[in-house]
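Progress against Task 2.4 (sequence-to-structure conversion) is shown through the following example record, which the project officer requested during the mid-term review.
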Amino acid sequence: MASLKEIRGRIVSVQSTKQVTSAMKMVSAAKLRKAQDAILRMRPYATKLHEVLSRVVSNMDSAIETPYAVHRPVGKVLLVLVTSNRGLCGAFNANVVKQAASLLEGEYAQAHAQGLVDFMIVGKKAADQLKARKLKAKTSHNELWSHLNFAEASKVAEEVMAAFATGQYDKVELIYNQFKNAGTQILVHEPFLPIVLEKRAGSSKGRRNDYIFDPDMDSIVRDLVPKALKIQFFKALLDSQAAEHGARMTAMHKATDNATSMIRELKLKYNKARQAAITTELTEIVAGAQALG
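Structure tokens generated for the chain above:
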């Protein structure tokens, strides 16, 4: 059995840990509210922009003339992994890399064997997870999390779009955690390039919306497609940011509860050990008195 001093030391240590986890939970809760407001404001805009673009495409007689909609035989692939710069958020980061590893073993097994799959990472933890799997990222943009905004996200999105347009990659996919609520994050694996726009229902039957487009539809599509791609990329970052704070808040809440339970058990163990020590001392005193008598 551990000594009283050792048990007291463990109680102090767990109490210190509990204070840290409780503080981190409160900080994550405060950050979550701000991040949640940002993604909830972004989603309707992204949905409406995609709807407008689809409506324009439905009225076009010819195919979309944009380098971001060119479908080529899949040769080289870029996987964009969005994780966090910090840990202590459960399986938030590990799930993203696990999904990427699953793609390498399944859909892109042949391309991976030929060295045709590259990684772009956002978040330091993705690099750590990839290193553990003996994989390496080609580019990283961890600086986005220091001050996330649309301007900085657009620069990274433009880098990816330029690489696709010049034929450096034939397909680009995003892997990130989508925010649902404080306790739930949905792992999302979605295509980024080439852009896929489906015609609205009814367009195939010859019914067209009687709109006047100014400028012409081709010009509108050329302007809207890059903007829609940047918005999609920025929305993925906002989703991941809110999901990260939710995951960390949940993890720290559970850690605080576990620390509380551990302190309770340690105090019970301490009291039992203390009582046993007192009983032993009393027994020794009585035995000594009887021996002297």
